[in-house]
Write a structure and sequence with these properties.
Elements (H helix, E strand, L loop, with lengths): L4 H78 L7 H9 L2 E8 L2 E7 L6 H6 L1 H9 L5 E7 L5 E8 L5 E7 L1 H8 L2 E2 L3 E2 L1 E3 L5 E3 L3 H5 L8 H7 L4 E7 L4 E9 L6 E7 H52 L16 H54 L9 H14 L8 E9 L1 H8 L1 H16 L6 E7 L2 E7 L5 H16 L2 E3 L2 E3 L2 E9 L8 H18 L3 E3 L2 H4 L1
Parallel strand pairs: 18-19
Antiparallel strand pairs: 1-2, 1-5, 3-4, 4-5, 6-7, 8-9, 8-12, 10-11, 11-12, 13-15, 13-18, 14-15, 16-17
Helix pairs in contact: 1-8, 11-12
Length: about 550
């Protein structure tokens, strides 16, 4: 073979390969010498970071679960404290058992007026211990007050709920800590990792140490517990008297009650994990060093330079840039790399062409999809409008009325909700107009009626057309009563008695209105009941013609 500059360059390259190998070994020896210390520290820091992320996340999840439990307890207790007589039902008993409520009391002027559950769970001594919570409940009526953990007369840790209801009676419920224990026992990891739950005073509600849990051990001296009592969310290190070990824990608090949740784990377990990671890393590093040394000896010169060029070109291609053809002239490399360069150059050209075509198609399809989405949105809006409104007058229809009444009746079960007054309007003489002048004139008359009535209504009124010549108006708010509805009805009757001018004809009609008042609490009342009652009142008014009648259940029955 005739010598040429390329062969001379190849000889220099082979010398460089040996130099690279020697440098690799020498440079690698120094980092490996410090690898044990660095890996151990890095692994330990990684474990600490994992605690901050995982343990704190777990603490927040447990806090959320306890928050939901506290909220549900407040809801159930509030409802039953207002209506304690409903506790005698089997369903109510099952509900109390589901929330671990073992005793329910109502007190009026120091005397029990209602008691449900185990009497042994409450005593005069417990009542005296709850003096502070009782005073707070009386200062803030209708608010649910959570007590710290107390030992009931049976020697069991118990949380008491207190609330002064709307009648001024003091309701007290005794809640067992079973749910807290179940939540705490569900969290276990590592050898000694666990969960702990404390009350607002730092007393143990749930803890892996059975004695601490059974006696509501005071854990407030622990720094992490003090942080939870201040409603702080963080990661802290402390010494655990129960495990006699240094611990690290993610902790947070339940905002509704002040309970604290922490997820502690011995620091020694983190150190053990870090040491195992260090040993594995050392072994992998040693094997990798030997393997990399052998590979670098064979492939350093052959692969590094061509691959770098290929990587740069590939990145440019992936970013949509124009890639120039790879040219390895004057570089000694295996034939496979030459074939790879040719294949890459061909692929780059095809990709560039395909990208242009794809961009054009994507642009076309995107435009089509936008038009399709816009059309679909328009059709959906039209369908929604048609489903809830009368096509003739544009007023909300019966479906909208039923939805509103269902919402008002649901709200009306609360004593604190405002009343709703319903006006059921029927036109007198409308059939005669239809029969005499035709349905077209009748439709125009209905439109004029809707417009004239709408001008009389206040902003908070809702106006509906049920169908035919029947209309409904609903008035909701503390300022609206049945008497207000009667006055508005009389104004409507007066307004509709005025003549209408339609297609050159003077048309006179009348109207009859039935009024139905929905006053909280609306227990057992349905939408059908309300509409039937209003319809009954309207027909009574229709007998008298051009008048308004307020529905009276006793008179109807």
């Amino acid at each position: 073979m005739v010598s040429n500059p390329s062969q001379s360059a190849m000889g220099q390259a082979l010398g460089l390969r040996k130099l690279l190998f020697v440098c690799f070994v020498v440079v690698s020896i120094v980092p490996v010498s410090f690898l044990e210390y660095w890996v151990q520290r890095r692994a330990y820091q990684a474990e600490l970071s994992a605690v901050e992320e995982q343990h704190l996340l777990l603490a927040k999840n447990l806090s959320s679960a306890l928050s939901r439990y506290a909220t549900d307890l407040q809801t159930v207790f509030t409802e039953k404290s207002e209506l304690p007589q409903t506790l005698s039902s089997e369903q109510a008993q099952q509900l109390l058992e589901a929330f671990n409520i073992n005793l329910f009391l109502c007190v009026r002027e120091g005397q029990w007026v209602y008691k449900k559950g185990h009497s042994r769970l409450f005593s005069q001594e417990i009542f005296e211990q709850l003096a502070r919570q009782v005073e707070k409940a009386r200062q803030e009526p209708q608010r649910v007050i959570f007590s710290p953990v107390l030992m009931n007369p049976a020697g069991e840790p118990t949380i008491y709920l207190l609330r002064v209801n709307s009648l001024g009676n003091l309701a007290i419920a005794a809640v067992a800590t079973d749910y807290f224990r179940q939540v705490q026992e569900a969290v276990s990891f590592g050898e000694l990792g666990h969960a702990a739950i404390v009350d607002q005073l730092g007393q143990a509600i749930a803890h892996p140490d059975a004695d601490w849990q059974a006696t509501a051990k005071d854990m407030s001296p622990i720094s992490a517990v003090q942080a939870m009592m201040r409603s702080e969310t963080d990661v802290a290190q402390f010494y655990s008297p129960a495990l006699k070990a240094d611990m690290i824990a993610g902790h947070t608090a339940v905002p509704e009650t002040g309970w604290g949740v922490m997820i502690p784990q011995p620091i020694s377990e983190l150190e053990d994990k870090a040491n195992r990671s260090r040993n594995v890393a050392l072994l992998i590093s040693a094997v990798g060093l030997l393997f990399a040394g052998g590979i670098s000896w064979q492939l350093a010169r052959l692969l590094v330079a061509p691959l770098q060029l290929l990587i740069v070109a590939s990145r440019q291609l992936s970013q949509g840039e124009v890639v120039e053809a790879l040219n390895f002239e004057g570089v000694v490399l295996p034939r496979e790399f030459s074939a790879l360069a040719q294949a890459f150059n061909q692929m780059a050209g095809e990709v560039s062409q395909s990208r242009l075509l794809l961009e054009e198609k994507v642009a076309e399809r995107t435009q089509a999809l936008r038009a399709e989405v816009e059309e679909r949105r328009r059709l959906e809006e039209q369908l929604r409008e048609a489903a809830n409104h009368d096509s003739l007058t544009g007023l909300p229809n019966r479906r909208s009325l039923v939805q509103e009444l269902e919402e008002k009746l649901l709200q009306g079960k609360s004593l604190t909700q405002a009343s709703t007054t319903l006006l059921f309007i029927d036109l007198d003489g409308f059939k005669r107009v239809n029969d005499t002048f035709g349905h077209k004139t009748g439709d125009e008359l209905l439109i004029c009626v809707a417009r004239r009535v709408a001008t009389l209504l206040p902003d908070e009124a809702r106006f509906y057309r049920l169908g035919g010549d029947e209309f409904v108006i609903t008035l909701h708010g503390e300022t609206w009563t049945a008497s207000h509805g009667m006055r508005l009805s009389q104004q409507i009757i007066t307004a509709l008695s005025e003549p209408f001018s339609i297609e050159g004809r003077v048309i006179r009609i009348g109207s009859s209105i039935g009024v139905r008042d929905i006053t909280p609490p609306a227990e057992g009342v349905t939408v059908d009941d309300v509409l039937a009652d209003a319809d009954t009142a309207m027909y009574q008014a229709k007998v008298k013609r051009n008048c308004v009648v307020l529905f009276n259940a006793s008179r109807v029955s």
